[in-house]
Amino acid sequence: MSDRKNVFAFYDIHVEIEGKEVVKGVTLEIKPGEKHAIMGPNGSGKSSLANALAGHPNYRITSGQAYLAGKNLLELDATERARAGLFLAFQYPLAIPGVTVANFLRTAIKASGGDEERLKNFRKELLEKFKLLDIDHSFAARYLNDGFSGGEKKRIEILQMAMLKPLVAILDETDSGLDIDALKIVSHGINTFAHKDGGVLLVTHYQRILNYVKPDRIHVMMDGRIVRSGGPELALQLEEQGYDWLKIEPAGVGGR
Question: Is-above-0.85 flag for pTM?
Answer without folding.
Answer: yes
